[in-house]
Amino acid sequence: MKLKDTPPILDTRRFADSIRRQPAFFQELPKGSFAELPANQRRQHFQHAMASGALSIAQRLERSRGEYDLGANLFKLVSSLASFGDSEQAVEALRDTYGDSGWMPKNERSLFHDQKQEIIEFNHTLREVINAGASRFSFDELLAFMTTMYEASGGETTLNFHNRARSALVGMRNEIAVEQVLIAAGVDYELGDAAQDAKGGDFIIDGVSIDVKTSEQSARYAQEKARRNGFNPRTIVWSHINFTDFEGQLTLPPEMNDAIFAKIKPDIDMAITSEKLPRSSQRVA
User: How many Å apart are CA 112 and CA 94, to the nearest integer?
Assistant: First the structure.
């Protein structure tokens, strides 16, 4: 997947060529005849080699330019594309098997948490890419870059990955936009740490962990799941930001900050109030 007039910073050929020249890339390839290996083993070796080569460049750039450098984070993003795709698939399979109850056998729950951690780390890198690169490329350009580099790294079922990457990009763009709205409104908040993030705690406001969803439908679904499992559904809110509000970009137009805050503020206030009420008062009809 390639867009016309791709920004130079997202030149996938340059990324692939740079990665394949790294010693770390060659160290991950088998010593014998690569062509004689079964196709699935060739793919795995090549994916590991691309990930190692990309991470090697990312670490070098980070040491020389700092952890917020766009180039460093783009290479770091590339290094985790395959593991992100595999982790998303594993988490989805476990959820399909055990449903929304939250119950899993101990060994599979451990696997679930490990895979979720991989996704959280990927999302952290994606956040840094958006923060540093939002003025240099669009939503579609970044998504095309991610999909093309996944394919160039030996990834299969590219459409499945494209859909998962798009969902991750939509979610992270939305989270950053909510943060932008809160900053503009002067709201004191903290981002959820890894443990809180794993449980849906995107923002901590007045000591309350609040899970912000990208759509009204996803918020309602999550609220219903919370009710069934005995959790407070009011701490799950919709951002009130629509996909079209971004106008194809990675950040929300600043002129929308006030209007969005006016819509989300009552939900945030209700979330905070509901957590301070006795548990018996939190039930929702």
Answer: 7
